[in-house]
Amino acid sequence: MPDIGDPNQEAEFDRRSIVRTRITKGALLFFKGQPGTRGCNITDLTERGARIYTHDLPLVPTTFDLTLDNFGTIRRCRLVWRKGGFLGAAFED
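The structure assignment produced for this chain is given below.
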């Protein structure tokens, strides 16, 4: 039986209709009504959303903004799930 935690075999069990791109890229989160930004890492990306790893971020609002290119592009996001330091975000725009 394959090891489900093995990233090489994970695609076998992934039933998503959209292809994910695995990346490790620094990004910034920012929240309406709160000054400043919070650093994070994008660990995979699709045209509809992203999996984000946050660094010690205990609370995350249900909507937030994300930039992967230092504010060249800003994506409005909706929090879909959270597990530990990882977040699932759906792009709103």
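Interim note for the steering committee: The chain has a mean pLDDT of 84. Residues 23-36+50-93 form one domain.
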